[in-house]
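Regression test case RT-17, inverse folding.

Input:
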């Protein structure tokens, strides 16, 4: 069944031509453009910093181009703000959500509208859009208590409530489990079949090839190629994005001899501020020179577990023995990893902050930041630029580099805790990050990896465990697992996990 845009609005042809955009000395877009046809899904791809999000932020009125034109159905337009773009029928769901956690779903959907807030009317809008699109939500639920995939639904419903007929989705499946991503992509396809248009900004080539009608690839701010889906292959996409097909990791997993124990958990339980048990009676260990992968569906307690490992949370019961130096890559970089308005050198200094007294060695930190940017291919103006000047993928590479190299104190970690470390990275950068993690293992570090991408876990992990409803299975050698077995355990069946009908409970 097709899903028409709310209000029955026909999607216009949206075209951007000859777009030029500079940020200081950095040329972000150079004669870039794209044409979005009515009733289609148009995938926008490219490596980190290629200009994809910048181009669409210009289309949505969040940035002004230095040159170029935007047309709707052939008529030139100029959006001075996102409100003007919304009025013209465009909507955008950005990679980092713009929701207010303390508000309800209905309140968030109504936020930014005109007139006095009508709770009953806002709830009715949420229900109506949910029935029409299959994106059902409880209008009275607090957004801060929703899982990530449900929060993304709120963002989409919020855009549709403004009558959007052309919807821009920036990395919509980046942090979703496979089943949740499949749900979103199914809705994307139905929305286009109903007459709407979708711009899908993504690094996931499989997503683009599965649902897009047209694909455009940018590289270094310029369009490399734009063509219909039938003319593209996976290898052609990779070559267009990077200029070459990247090689896989040089160090194969599951061949490193185990070392000494670098992390141990004994009977660890964690209950949140409301008394809800998120991690229950976990005992596990990690040895030097190995990657332990943890698979889970969203909300299973994996993020709390990793914070316990990294020392960001204290267990309610039990004992965590960890080394003095831990590299931590959290899943939400904007909330937990970087200060967007602070210079890059200050962000590099964050990990070692408080480790010593006295004056900050700013010159040394500038040099360290330049070294880190070069080593991890972080593309940006330099150490004095604010973190928000970087693309999302380059922000992630800076965070990873800081975690792997020790940041401001310079001491390499003996334990690395990584939650979605390749989130928002292009295919070449993913291969590079994988190699960096494997190199850290070869140097004697232990790595704990959580990823929604099971292929990534199988590619890197020596041992794999599954967490469901706060209970962790025993980590077994990767060769003993199958995708079917992991899927069953993630759903609550098999191993030592609690039956799927049971949920986390109050302590």
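Golden output:
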């Amino acid at each position: 069944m097709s899903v028409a845009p709310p209000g029955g609005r026909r999607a216009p042809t949206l075209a951007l031509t000859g777009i030029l955009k500079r940020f200081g000395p950095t040329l972000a877009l150079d004669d870039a453009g794209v044409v979005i046809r009515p009733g289609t899904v148009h995938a926008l791809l490219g490596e980190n910093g290629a200009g994809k999000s910048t181009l669409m932020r210009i289309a949505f009125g969040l940035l002004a181009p230095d040159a170029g034109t935007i047309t709707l159905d052939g008529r030139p337009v100029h959006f001075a703000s996102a409100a003007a773009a919304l009025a013209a029928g465009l909507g955008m769901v950005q990679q980092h959500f713009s929701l207010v956690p303390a508000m309800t779903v209905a309140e968030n959907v109504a936020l930014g509208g005109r007139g006095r807030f009508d709770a009953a009317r806002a709830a009715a809008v949420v229900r109506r859009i949910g029935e029409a699109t299959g994106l059902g939500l409880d209008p009275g639920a607090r957004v801060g208590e929703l899982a990530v995939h449900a929060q993304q639904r709120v963002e989409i419903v919020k855009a549709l409530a403004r009558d959007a007929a052309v919807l821009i989705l920036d990395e919509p499946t980046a942090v979703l489990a496979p089943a949740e991503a499949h749900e979103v992509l199914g809705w994307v396809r139905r929305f286009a079949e109903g007459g709407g248009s979708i711009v899908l900004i993504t690094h996931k080539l499989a997503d683009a090839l599965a649902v897009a009608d047209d694909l455009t690839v940018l590289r270094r701010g310029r369009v490399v190629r734009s063509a219909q889906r039938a003319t593209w292959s996976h290898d052609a996409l990779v070559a267009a994005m990077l200029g070459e097909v990247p090689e896989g990791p040089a160090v194969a997993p599951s061949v490193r001899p185990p070392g000494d124990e670098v992390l141990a958990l004994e009977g660890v339980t964690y209950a949140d501020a409301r008394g809800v048990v998120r991690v229950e009676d976990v005992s596990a260990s990690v040895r030097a020179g190995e990657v332990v992968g943890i698979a889970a569906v969203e909300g299973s307690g994996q993020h709390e577990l990793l914070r316990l490992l990294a020392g960001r949370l204290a267990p309610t019961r039990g004992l965590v023995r960890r080394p003095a130096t831990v590299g931590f890559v959290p899943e939400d970089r904007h909330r937990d990893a970087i200060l967007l308005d602070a210079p890059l050198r200050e962000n590099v200094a964050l990990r070692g902050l408080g480790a010593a007294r006295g004056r900050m060695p700013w010159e040394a930190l500038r040099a360290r930041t330049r070294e880190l940017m070069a080593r991890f291919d972080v593309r940006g103006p330099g150490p004095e630029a604010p973190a928000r000047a970087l693309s999302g993928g380059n922000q992630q590479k800076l965070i990873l580099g800081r975690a792997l190299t020790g940041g401001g104190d310079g001491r390499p970690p003996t334990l690395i805790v990584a939650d979605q470390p390749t989130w928002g990275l292009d295919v070449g950068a993913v291969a590079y990050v994988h190699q960096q993690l494997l190199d850290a293992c070869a140097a004697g570090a232990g790595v704990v990896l959580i990823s929604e991408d099971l292929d990534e876990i199988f590619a890197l992990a020596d041992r794999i465990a599954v967490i469901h409803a706060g209970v962790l299975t025993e980590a077994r050698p990767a060769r003993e697992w199958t995708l079917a077995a992991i899927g069953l355990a993630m759903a609550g069946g098999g191993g030592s996990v609690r039956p799927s009908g049971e949920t986390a409970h109050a302590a």
